[in-house]
Design a protein that fits this description.
- The structure is a single chain.
- 68% of the residues lie in helices and 0% in strands.
- It contains eight helices and no strands.
- Helix 3 packs antiparallel against helix 6.
Length: 206
């Protein structure tokens, strides 16, 4: 009985030592969630997609994990306010774009048509633009407490942009749209005159 109590106390001390920092706690929680998710994904034979999602979650959370692990009490500065502003703009952009698309699809008269008004008149994927802006704002605000290598967590918004722009989001939707409306002159004109993502004139290669 005494030996069991000793082992339990030893394990508790070891756990307290490992879990001493906020970053370690967040990492451990993230790892536990990923293991459970991977087990479910494996059971449904979708582990390849889950691996990408798990990587996405970990990389995008890096600035937040770094921020929460810092114990220095830094006063709020310009980067905090600008970052929050960018996040707010991104949140509003994504929310409004999604609402506009939902309203459009809810109208029976729009069956088989594509949306090209509201925010969708300035970007073909304004909801994804809002997502990128949100993660960019979070990084900027969190960077106020970063030092040295911690700035490498800028990979967070860059990773979100790369996946949405080149992997899982825009390429798939663009392919589906071309298959559905590619022969429609109105859609061809929409593509020609509406930026793919950023609401300003397209650069070569965008």
């Amino acid at each position: 009985m005494i030996e069991l109590k000793f082992v339990a106390l030893l394990l508790q001390n070891l756990l307290d030592m490992i879990m001493g920092s906020t970053l370690a706690k967040c990492a451990a929680t993230d790892l536990a969630i990923q293991w459970v998710g991977w087990a479910l994904a494996s059971a449904f034979k979708t582990e390849k997609f889950y691996d990408l999602a798990a990587l996405w979650v970990f990389v995008t959370l890096l600035p937040t994990l770094i921020l929460n692990s810092e114990r220095r009490d830094e006063p709020l500065g310009p980067r905090d306010y600008i970052g929050w502003g960018i996040w707010g703009l991104g949140f509003a952009t994504e929310a409004i774009a999604d609402q506009q698309k939902w309203n459009f699809r809810s109208d029976p008269d729009n069956a088989g048509k594509f949306i090209h008004h509201g925010l969708w008149a300035y970007s073909r994927h304004p909801n994804y633009l809002g997502e990128i802006l949100q993660w960019s704002g979070l990084f900027l605000s969190a960077s106020s407490v970063m030092r040295g290598p911690q700035y490498l967590s800028a990979v967070s918004p860059l990773f979100v942009w790369f996946l949405l722009r080149h992997v899982s989001g825009i390429p798939i939707l663009e392919k589906q749209a071309m298959k559905k409306w590619g022969s429609d002159p109105a859609f061809q004109n929409y593509i020609k005159n509406t930026p793919l993502l950023w609401p300003f004139p397209k650069f070569k290669g965008e």
